[in-house]
Amino acid sequence: MRSALRAAVGGAALGAVILAAPTPVHADGEYLRITPSTVQPGFPVEIEGYCGDNVNPATVMSDAFGTVTIAPTPDQRTGKFLHRGTATVPTDKPPEDYPVAMTCASQQSASTTLHVVNPNVPPRGPHTGGGYLANKPLSTNGFTLAGVGALALGSLLLFVKRRKQRS
Amino acid sequence: MKTVLAACLLLFGMFTVGVGLGKQNGFPLFKQSAKAPPGEFPVLDPSPPKRIRIPSIGVDATVHAVGTERDGSISVPAPRLRNEAGWYRHGPSPGEYGPAILVGHVDTKDKPAIFHRLRELEPGAKIEIARRDRKVAVFEVNSVEQFNKERLPAAKVYQDFSRPALRLITCGGNWVGGATGYADNIIVFASLVSSRPA
């Protein structure tokens, strides 16, 4: 199940187009993006950074997952040198907003925030009902009323016809 | 002539009662069963939800934050707030990556409540959440499903962080009573499709 979710995150990060992710952009266009930007402890995130076409490795640091050094590779679509990597948030990481900072080889930098949430999975569903509607087997649903009315009328007609036939 | 009319009325009656009971009990007579989430979507910064609007089932209500019960399940609004929804404050807010969870009562012991028509939602229906930062997150329903409360598919409900999404949860199924109440939860799965200023 977990590996399927990891695959889903990876697929979504590569395949889905994000319309307006909150990514601060700097002078040379350097940026840092973490996907997903909100995650549970124990799950991986994708890192994407841009150091203005610098071909040397950059370091990405956060209290959420430690330090990752990423060498850039040219992006297939644009040809720009992007730093792409992954990191995993440990299962015991307390839920909080964690700053993430990237330092480029050229001393440029970019930063963003990773929101770690929801470490506990509820063991059962919420108790969202008091039983009022459960005591009403037939509601005042328009369809049901019309249908019952038609059934009654039809049965009455047949009954009247039978009586007339007999007498 | 009268026989034909009676037969027509009986057939019409049987069909219409069927549709009526089906609508009431959530049988998907004329529904499409699911709609795929979008390929493109925005991602929003965290911000608590303030209001929920679901035009197709007449919901327009306040949202307040809720936490966790002692048994680990998500807390629910107090009975006097039966027409408000509760946002699970320990999960993502609507618009962030991950499933933002809103719970609401289907009824109290003597009145219908905010989500009493939730099971009538169709895939493709829109749900709007107004947030404290004045942005409105617009979600589209993917599916409406029913599970036994003790056997919710945890990964699908709580742990899918592949896109910004929404889970609306209420009760349904048979009334068991006691500490359990209703046996099942009705869960609406929806995905973020767009956002706009309020």
Q: Estimate what percentage of residues of chain B fall within beta strands.
A: 35-45%
What would you give as the CATH superfamily of one domain in chain A?
Answer: Macroglobulin (MG2) domain
Mean pLDDT of chain B: 92
The sequence of SSEs of chain B as H and E is: HEEEEEEEHEE
Biggest chain contact? A-B, 63 and 82 residues
Sequence stretches where pLDDT stays below 50 over 5 or more residues of chain A? 10-15
CATH superfamily of chain B: Sortase
Mean pLDDT of chain A: 84
Helical coverage of chain A, percent range: 10-25%
Provide a concise account of the structure shown.
Chain A is an alpha+beta fold and 167 residues long. Chain A has helices spanning 2-15, 142-166; strands spanning 17-18, 31-35, 38-39, 44-50, 58-62, 66-70, 73-74, 81-88, 96-103, 109-116.
Descriptive report:
- The complex is a heterodimer of chains A (167) and B (198).
- Chain A has 167 residues and is an alpha+beta fold.
- Chain A contains two helices and ten strands; from the N terminus they run H-E-E-E-E-E-E-E-E-E-E-H.
- Chain A has a domain of 96 residues: Macroglobulin (MG2) domain (Immunoglobulin-like), CATH 2.60.40.1930.
- In chain A, the strands form two sheets. A five-stranded mixed β-sheet of chain A has the order 3-10-9-5-6, with no helix packed on it. In chain A, strands 2-4-8-7 form a four-stranded antiparallel β-sheet, with helices on one face.
- In chain A, a hairpin with a 3-residue loop joins strand 5 and strand 6.
- Chain A is elongated.
- Chain B is mainly beta.
- Chain B has a single domain, classed as Sortase (Sortase, Chain: A, Beta Barrel), CATH 2.40.260.10.
- Chain B is built from two helices and nine strands, in the order H-E-E-E-E-E-E-E-H-E-E.
- Chain B is globular and about 70 Å long.
- The interface between A and B is large, with 63 and 82 residues.
- Strand 1 of chain A pairs parallel with strand 1 of chain B, so a sheet runs across the interface.
